[in-house]
Amino acid sequence: MSKQNIYDNDTFFEGYQAIRKNERNANNLFEIPALFSLLPDLKGKTILDLGCGFGVHCRKFAEAGANHVLGIDISEKMLAVAEIENSHTNITYLNLPMEDIDQLEGNFDLVISSLAFHYVKDFSDLITKIYDRLNDNGSLVFSQEHPINTCHAGGDRWTRDADGNRLHLNLAHYSVSGERESVWFVDNVKKYHRTFSEIINILISAGFTIDKMIEPLPENKILEEYPEYRDLLHKPDFLVVKAQKLKKKD
Amino acid sequence: MSKQNIYDNDTFFEGYQAIRKNERNANNLFEIPALFSLLPDLKGKTILDLGCGFGVHCRKFAEAGANHVLGIDISEKMLAVAEIENSHTNITYLNLPMEDIDQLEGNFDLVISSLAFHYVKDFSDLITKIYDRLNDNGSLVFSQEHPINTCHAGGDRWTRDADGNRLHLNLAHYSVSGERESVWFVDNVKKYHRTFSEIINILISAGFTIDKMIEPLPENKILEEYPEYRDLLHKPDFLVVKAQKLKKKD
Questions:
Q1: How far is Cα A144 from Cα A141, in angstroms, rounded to an integer?
Q2: Which CATH architecture describes the domain A10-145+195-245?
Q3: pLDDT band at A1; cut points 50, 70, 90
Q4: With an 8 Å Cβ cutoff, are A235 and B210 in contact?
Q5: For B10-245, CATH number?
Q6: Alpha-carbon gap: A164 to the closest alpha carbon of chain B (Å)
């Protein structure tokens, strides 16, 4: 069973819900602004959100004028919250692993995913399935953990000075793709490390054209308010990518 | 004066010539194979080699059937060697900084550069000038130091165990683009760090389509013969990129 569902674990779910309720988390401060900066005009569009979680983004897409939003997630618990907190006449929530989108009918103008792809084992298979679900001139916009993050394979991640300030990241095994085990509320959360070139080449091989990439940093005013995010100057946490399925020439 | 010419410094030149004469250096073992793996068929092509040095690549291009190869370099000393060791009826060597290729007449089917772009201060300006010099459906193929390398800003690069084995890279300042000073035979060699996304986005903004990227590793048989290159599993030394100037649709 290659599809990991940590989200329906009670311990994980409660921990995750707590950080997402903190409005000043890293996602809200710089991952989501970067992701949304790459979105096309959503008016009249059909949108597929992979790993939609609580449906917060789905509601934003619907409110921005999307014609229809399909939010899928492997976690029934997450979707139960989504149905209560973020329902909308133009949104459908569906309990489906993103690895199974070849089972869906119909195509989309935009496929979006926030911080979920690093849990997927077979990235090439996923990207091919996304390409097949997109209309011509459709876009894929996704964020994931940065490859400099996902390469971590245990041990201390940072070297600190006597005051606990982070001096540098302890980078190892960057060139070794594959599974990494980590602890995130629960033990044995599996993530998959892929190098930068691997991510890019898989997208291109599937037929996508790379449109833009962002390694987001907090704006200066956020750095002043939250000096702990200065560590991101050493190492970005996230990678955000926009790719397009350009219409083939006749 | 933004165009750096370390190569005509006597100390640098002699040190550089010595490592390049060692046929088993990192360039020959995995940078050059990766670079050449991205080249199109060279028969009948016009080629511009930016930072051609001793002209070793230029001769290979000419021998592979290129119609004409223009090798440019900022270093007169390098070109003097090129004229002696790698002359060919289809090659012209010219003493010109790559930042000045807008002064050239005529266009090229292929622009290539090996390990020189990280010395260029204004990457965006260079890439725009390259785009302007390429024919429709022409390609740019280049290698440079890997962004995980170029970000280094002094201090120990590696943390080692008691036996001197490299445990991990000390990664810092990745997200801070700009000038880095380093020592390579001589003091104060200036390199310019750019993040992955910056390199990609500058290429795309200039009009290029990204075709493939490689973060080269030595093959297993080389790792067996030269175990010191196992460190590359922690951190690749080089980044190799192929980008295309696709003909605009009518």
A1: 10
A2: 3-Layer(aba) Sandwich (3.40)
A3: very low
A4: no
A5: 3.40.50.150
A6: 16
